[in-house]
From TrEMBL, chain A:
Residues 299-323 are annotated as: Disordered. The gene is Crlf1. Residues 1-84 form the Ig-like domain. It comes from Corythaixoides concolor. This is Cytokine receptor-like factor 1. It comes from the Eukaryota. The lineage of its organism: Eukaryota, Metazoa, Chordata, Craniata, Vertebrata. Belongs to the type I cytokine receptor family. Type 3 subfamily.
TrEMBL record, chain B:
It comes from Corythaixoides concolor. It comes from the Eukaryota. This is Cardiotrophin-like cytokine factor 1. GO terms for molecular function: cytokine activity. The gene is Clcf1. One of its GO terms (biological process) is cell surface receptor signaling pathway via JAK-STAT. Forms a heteromeric complex with cardiotrophin-like cytokine CRLF1/CLF-1; the CRLF1-CLCF1 complex is a ligand for the ciliary neurotrophic factor receptor/CNTFR. The CRLF1-CLCF1 heterodimer binds SORL1 (via N-terminal ectodomain); within this complex, the interaction is mediated predominantly by the CRLF1 moiety. The tripartite signaling complex formed by CRLF1, CLCF1 and CNTFR also binds SORL1. Pfam families: PRF (PF06875). The keyword Glycoprotein applies. In complex with CRLF1, forms a heterodimeric neurotropic cytokine that plays a crucial role during neuronal development. Also stimulates B-cells. Binds to and activates the ILST/gp130 receptor. SUPFAM superfamilies: 4-helical cytokines. The lineage of its organism: Eukaryota, Metazoa, Chordata, Craniata, Vertebrata.
Length: 374, 219
């Protein structure tokens, strides 16, 4: 229904108030005299739901009030919609209620620098109550020994409570970083975090991760990768971690002692199984410092499968059918046990194992050819 | 075989034709493609608007996001260009007039949409709105391109609303929500109708590749 252009049909008071969670409110709706409506012709809704008539009171011939108690936080940050209607459902006026809490100190500020070029920080709101209202967060930073405050401009780069500083960052010198939160009900400032960019460096994940079989060895896979290119420019040592799992399991096994090699042999694996492998990098000892950096993200998973055991019960091994001697089986079990309990990238162990296997295969070959014991 | 023969004949005929005056082939090629692009853009915007409007109305909260919501148009200053027109009147307009009306309407709608990106909206909404405004800007330019390729002058005068959105703004937050609701609603209707307009215009200006007007020359 269109309305006369002269005046708004009704006026609500208070108009667009800001309130604390748990507070009470009495609102009034006064109809313009042009509309020939009486208080008893009106009703209220809050966020589309009709409010009970028991909470109404007629304060005059054209004024109806409503009492709201123990208000919960606003249903949406644009404000709860309190609306005064005429009997036929038409909207006469509305008021937006902003119900929430003043912000508390933002907490858990963590920062990281990608390749020493930038700084990204994230934090958590001090309280849930401030999420009912639109709360503005401003990340500020300054060099500890110089006075000027800077304000971060690029928000939401790593989630809703984050900010990205893309350039003009100094190294080898501490920064002070803090977050200011403000909304309609108040302001709060976090504690100051102090850090040197060099202490929070992370890299991209190692590129070119390749996983391949080791010859016919059915319980091993070889993993190779490259060091992240971005950090070629400055002195640092990288340490790596590998995690791997079987295709149908969600449990990752972590290999921790990779050191700064760019290859590793996984052993003690199940034959004929598909494995997913990921690698990540931690740049430490940047410019000679002793501190560890921050682990990069894991590389995208790379898959590979171990060779399936070729031996069936009868043995169709083309190299000779005598390989399932008791001796070999026991030795194999022993070495398997050793591998499982000392798995990792201990090169000595693997080399020895390989040499033993090769020797074993050779000796079986000669045995079958010549028919003698080794 | 046969097709080659026809093709050779057409080429010979073309070479023997005197230069076409007035409406030559290149202009029509431009207009046809322009109109097609504008039509496609209108449909794309229609689709984008569905998602944008859904998100925005959820942000405004109930009752604004209820399907049958139909608040009064509190007629203060005429703000958003209304898409509601007498359909016969609309069809009776010349192509030029209709295109000009579209151009003016979307220019103003774009201004209001840009102002919608207020301080309080969420980051996700601001991002979606920004993207939509870029596309809508593209539509305004596209319509200008069509008008120019058909030889029509662009409408003169301020492209934006008569008063900047800030000064003639809603006096309270609830009325602003109602304005936002109607802006999205009108935009929806405009896009729906423009698609039909451009579809009809497309048929009037045929695809130009073989528009040789041989019939007119008595071939």
């Amino acid at each position: 229904p269109f309305v006369s252009p002269a005046a708004d049909p009704a006026v609500i008071s208070p108009q667009d108030p800001t309130l604390l969670i748990g507070s009470s409110l009495v609102a009034t709706c006064t109809v313009s005299p042009d509309f020939h409506l009486k208080a008893e012709d009106l009703y209220w809704t809050l966020n589309g739901r009709r409010l009970p008539a028991a909470s109404y009171a007629a304060l005059g011939p054209t004024t109806l009030s409503v009492a709201l108690a123990h208000l919960n936080g606003s249903k949406q940050q644009s404000g709860d919609n309190l609306v005064c209607h005429s009997r036929d459902g038409g909207i006469l006026a509305g008021s937006c209620l902003y119900v929430g809490l003043p912000p508390e100190k933002p907490v858990n500020i963590t920062c990281w620098s990608k390749n020493m070029k930038d700084l990204t920080c994230k934090w958590a709101p001090g309280t849930e109550g401030e999420t009912f209202l639109h709360t503005n967060y401003t990340l500020k930073y300054k060099l500890r020994w110089y006075g000027r405050d800077n304000t971060c401009q690029e928000y939401h780069t790593a989630g809703p409570y984050s900010c990205h500083i893309p350039k003009d960052l100094a190294l080898f010198t501490p920064y002070e970083i803090w977050v200011e939160a403000s909304n309609r009900l108040g302001v709060a400032v976090s504690d100051v975090v102090m850090l040197d960019i060099l202490d929070v460096v992370t890299t991209d994940p190692p590129p070119d991760v390749h996983v391949s079989r080791v010859g016919d060895l059915e319980d091993q896979l070889s993993v190779r990768w490259s060091s992240p290119p971005a950090l070629k420019d400055f002195l640092f040592q990288a340490k790596y971690q590998i995690q791997y799992r079987v295709e149908d399991s969600s449990e990752w096994k972590v290999v921790d002692d990779v050191g700064n090699q760019t290859s590793c042999r996984l052993a003690g694996l199940r034959p004929g199984t598909v494995y997913f492998v990921q690698v990540r990098c931690n740049p430490f000892g940047i410019y000679g410092s002793k501190k560890a950096g921050i682990w990069s993200d894991w590389s995208n998973p790379t898959a590979a499968s171990t060779p399936r055991s070729e031996r069936a019960a009868g043995g169709c091994d083309p190299k000779g059918g005598e390989q399932n001697t008791t001796l070999r089986r026991e030795l194999k079990q022993f070495f398997g046990w050793v591998k499982k309990h000392a798995y990792g990238c201990s090169n000595l162990g693997i080399k020895l194992y390989d040499q033993w296997r090769v020797w074993l295969q050779k000796s079986h070959k000669t045995r079958n050819q010549v028919g003698k014991e080794p | 075989g046969d097709s080659w023969g026809i093709f050779t004949f057409l080429c010979a005929a073309l070479c023997n034709l005197p230069a076409l005056p007035a409406l030559n082939c290149t202009e029509e090629l431009g207009a046809g493609q322009s109109i097609q692009k504008t039509y496609d853009l209108t449909r794309y915007l229609e689709h984008q608007l569905r998602t944008l409007a859904g998100t925005y109305l959820n942000y405004l909260g109930p009752p604004f996001n209820e399907p049958d919501f139909n608040p009064p148009r509190l007629a203060r200053v005429e703000r958003v260009p209304s898409a509601t027109v007498d359909l016969d009147l609309w069809r009776g307009l010349t192509d030029n007039a209709r295109l000009a009306a579209n151009y003016r309407a979307y220019s103003r709608l774009l201004c209001y949409l840009r102002a919608l990106d207020g301080q309080a909206a969420t980051a996700e909404l601001r991002h979606r709105l920004g993207h939509f405004c870029s596309s809508l800007q593209g539509l305004v330019l596209s319509i200008a391109g069509v008008m120019s390729s058909l030889g029509y002058p662009l409408p003169v005068g301020p492209a934006g609303p008569s008063a900047p959105p800030g000064t003639a703004g809603a006096p309270n937050d609830f009325l602003k929500k109602m304005d936002d609701f109607w802006l999205l609603k009108e935009l929806q209707t405009w896009l729906w109708r423009s698609a039909k307009d451009f579809n009809r215009l497309k048929k009037k200006v045929p695809p130009a590749v073989v528009t040789l007007r041989l019939e007119a020359r008595g071939f």
